[in-house]
Amino acid sequence: MSSMNDLILSTSALTKSFGGLIAVNDVSLDVEKGSIKAIIGPNGSGKTTFFNLITGVFPPSSGHIFFEGRNITRTSMHQRTRLGISRSYQITNIFPYQTTFENIRLAAQGCSGARVNFLGMLKKAGTYTNFHEKVLEIASIVGLDPMRLYIPAALIPHAEQRKLEIAMALATEPRLLLLDEPAAGMAIEEIPEVIDAILRVKESYGDQLTLLVVEHKMDIVMNLSEEIFVLSEGKMIAKGSPKEIQENEEVLTAYLGGTDEKLA
Ligand SMILES: Nc1ncnc2c1ncn2[C@@H]1O[C@H](COP(=O)(O)OP(=O)(O)OP(=O)(O)O)[C@@H](O)[C@H]1O
Ligand SMILES: [Mg+2]
């Protein structure tokens, strides 16, 4: 069992109601520092709402959120970004007329300040001297095509746009990165590219970065995560290793309860 010190994120009995609908229902989970974990569940099971609670988009109806041991349940969204929580969105959130480079640079600039040297840890010696160097390093980590860094982001392929979003989230120097369906809207053959990008990010940052990935397609997270949490109708119905989850009857039932698409 992990001690409180090893945890970067911990929720206790986290609950969010929208009127009569309980979107997130009594969810308690722990995420260890430096780990890569996933939240899966059918459409509408509360995955994005859970991320919205972690990032402070809205307050929970009840329950608590702890980040690195600190109670952030009522902390502002802006303050949580400063503490080191960042996310990418289920729906692409880039500036389409800005270049790829500029999108990352703007995200980096938005967070310049106290922790500006954090990414310097990636380098053997020294720190970044300017945003230019930082942008190029992040672009290379997520595997953005260097030839396409200087054209409007709207014109790069969809898979590259999803990697750009991960790059923008990384530019804010997070310690916890939340990815909401990073492969959403992708053709099946583009998916491995995004999985590779995520694994490369994890490898590059090592224990300095913790990843929590939301997906509704089970197969995407199977090779990616150490532990999987399963939501169904707002409740956490299972957690375990990819193998345990694959064999869990209740999980299979939750997925089979819907359309075939959810099984993919
Ligand atoms: N701001 C909101 N106001 C009212 N209801 C909401 C709001 N956000 C989410 N919901 C509802 O909460 C439930 C959970 O939605 P959520 O977006 O968290 O699901 P999800 O697991 O991310 O689904 P998907 O796989 O489709 O992205 C849904 O019934 C949704 O309609
Ligand atoms: Mg969602």
H/E series: EEEHEEHEHHHEHEHEEHH
| Class inferred from helices and paired strands | alpha/beta
Question: How helical, in percent, are the residues?
Answer: 25-40%
Q: How would you characterize the largest beta sheet?
A: 6 strands, mixed
Tag the structure with descriptive keywords.
264 residues; alpha/beta; Rossmann fold; four-stranded antiparallel β-sheet; 9 helices; 10 strands; globular; binds adenosine-5'-triphosphate; binds magnesium ion
What can you see in these coordinates?
By secondary structure, this protein is an alpha/beta fold. The protein has one domain (4-263): 3-Layer(aba) Sandwich (Rossmann fold). Helix content is 33%, strand content 24%. The chain has nine helices and ten strands. The protein has helices at 47-55, 77-83, 100-110, 131-142, 158-171, 191-205, 218-222, 242-246, 249-256; strands at residues 7-18, 21-32, 36-40, 62-67, 70-71, 85-88, 176-180, 210-215, 227-232, 235-240. A six-stranded mixed beta sheet has the order 6-7-8-3-9-10, with helices on both faces. A hairpin with a 2-residue loop joins strand 4 and strand 5. Helix 3 (100-110) runs parallel beside helix 5 (158-171) and helix 4 (131-142) crosses helix 5. Mean pLDDT is 87; it is low at 113-127 and 259-264. Bound molecules: adenosine-5'-triphosphate and magnesium ion (MG). Adenosine-5'-triphosphate (ATP) binds next to strand 2 and helix 1.
